Amino acid sequence: MKIAYFDCSFGAAGDMLLGAFLDAGFSLDVLQEELSKLHLPQGEFQLSLSKVHRTSLLASYLQVQIEPVSHDEASKPGHEHEHFGQPHDHHHHHHEHGHTHAGGERHLSEILSLIENSTLAAPVKTTATRIFQRLGEAESKVHGVPVEDIHFHEVGATDAIVDIVGFAVAFHGLGIEKAYVSALPLGSGTVKTSHGIFPVPGPATLNLLVDAGAPTREMTLGYECLTPTGAAILTTVADAFAVVPAFSRISSCGYGAGTLNPASHPNVVRIMLGEGETTDESNGRNTCNSEIVACLETNLDDCSPQVLAFAAEALLSKGALDVSLTACTMKKGRPGHLLTVLSRPEEAQALAGIIMKETTALGVRSFLCERLTLDRDFVSVNVMGEKIKVKVARDKMGKLINVQPEFDDCKRLSLASGMALKEVIAECLRQCALS
Fold first, then answer.
1. Residue 51 belongs to what H/E stretch?
2. Among 232, 136, 223, CA closest to 186
3. Residue 284, pLDDT above cutoff 50
């Protein structure tokens, strides 16, 4: 199975993602030929691809050069100079293009009609349409109007259409079957839009992340790291937000450059392409759900077991996904405990505070990791006239993987009936097998 991993450590924009595909080996000539199937006016845009350095890293820089609108047209309402990625003033520095957007404003229906009436392949049309629909829904929430009434300014411009449709062309042209995306940095500061100045992340970008349940990572750079177009693309194609997935073979990688070239980091998107390791021998599809969680750890050699037990209960009551204590040997041969807590990324700071409040910890290690889980549900079985809850776990194909009766229910029945606990558990499993 062909998979792709989008490493967006320093952000993402439409032109950066498309540039990364071209850097990974997708043909610029093929891209231009496919984009011509949109039947946009002759000469409305041109693509320019060059090699640039971002810090010391060589990357591909894609520019969508738009035929400028006239001075008279640019002065009309709806022709604000919306820059998706250029440092046109010192207040906000984005990643994308840096020119006046051609085409004025477009309705979502116009854009979808443009795609539908093209001669692009059906999968390309479907992906591009889904991206624009998600973007339209995010904008409609921002303005509180029906999606059909949304007038696209920036994202309806020709360069954004080229970015989104071009991405869909390359995505399917490379045969990608499954996509993984890293946690996304947002940046900081403000962004100037056709509707005024907004804080980073922009409202539409934030709505897209909320809708997708996408994880973010801290990045205090004073500009917009993730643009609405980049967010719409990634949240649409992502099968999971995760760390680097398991590849049986990485066939290629590519780096797509943003406009800025800060000294502190390479302003690029990195794409890895290859064959994914399969966990289901019958059809090669991944069987587990993937999610990003925060892992909190601290070593303790001066905290009583009673206090540790209380802290574990407090952490679970405040939303920790899991808490464990592991015996370990610390400096000077002292016996101690490793306290490990799994949490949702957005709750990590609060839980770290509980650890330091309720234990003797002076610090907590925190890092993001991938958690693979099975789908789980509860069923009830009848044992000696009592209902016992049973947890049932299945893979993504619906295959039964694990069955486990709830211990407290089994314990209650054992104490009430005099039946051995192991016999209660065995009877629960037998009833599950019969149902």
1. strand 45-54
2. 223
3. no
The one-letter amino acid at 92: H
Confidence bin at 132 (pLDDT 50/70/90) = very high
Q: Phi/psi of residue 181, each to 5°? A: -130, 140
Q: Which of 127, 129, 134 is nearest to 116 (CA)?
A: 129
The pLDDT > 70 percentage for the chain reads 84
Give yes or no for residue 6 having a pLDDT over 70.
Answer: yes
Reduced DSSP (H G I as helix, E B as strand, rest coil) percent helix, strand, coil of the chain, to 5:
35, 30, 35
Q: Residue 253 in contact with residue 26, Cβ under 8 Å?
A: no
Residue 383 has pLDDT above 70, yes or no: yes
**What pLDDT score does 352 carry?**
96
Q: Are 36 and 42 in contact (CB under 8 A)?
A: no
d(CA 368, CA 211): 21
Beta-bridge mates of residue 404: 391
pLDDT at residue 149 is higher than 90: no
Closest CA to 268 of 60, 3, 50: 60
pLDDT-derived band at 143, boundaries 50, 70, 90: low
Determine the longest span between alpha carbons in the chain, in angstroms.
90
Locate 109 and state its tokens: 């229906």
How far, CA to CA in Å, does 409 sit from each of 126, 265, 321, 384, 417?
Answer: 49, 55, 22, 13, 12
* DSSP state letters, 281-304: TTT----SEEEEEEEEEEEESS--
* pLDDT tens for each residue of 179-201: 999 999 888 777 676 666 777 77
Which sign, positive or negative, has the C-alpha torsion 131, 370, 395, 284?
Answer: positive
Please state, in angstroms and as integers, the Cα–Cα distance from residue 139 to each residue in 105, 144, 214, following that order. Answer: 14, 8, 18
